[in-house]
Amino acid sequence: MINSTPESYRLQTEQAVVPVSTKERGTAYMVNKDIFPALEGVTTYVLEVWEEAMRLPHWHPNASELGYVISGAIEIIIWRSPGETAVFTATAGMCWFIPQSALHSLNNIGDKPAELLVGFSSDRPQDMDLPVAFNGIPVPIREAYTSPHSELSQWRGASSNPLLGKFTPPTELQRVASGSPYAFDLAKVTPLLNEASLGSVIWGVKSNWSILENISMLRAHLKPGAARDAIWYPDAGTLYVVSQGEGEFHIVVADQPVVPLKVKRNDFIFVPMGVLHTFLNTSAKDFEVIAFFTKADPQPEVSLAVATSFFPNSLRQQAMTEYGLEQKGGDPLKGLKLSGVSPYLLKLS
Question: Which option is the CATH number for 6-185: 2.60.120.10, 3.90.1170.20, 3.40.50.300, 3.40.630.30?
Answer without folding.
Answer: 2.60.120.10
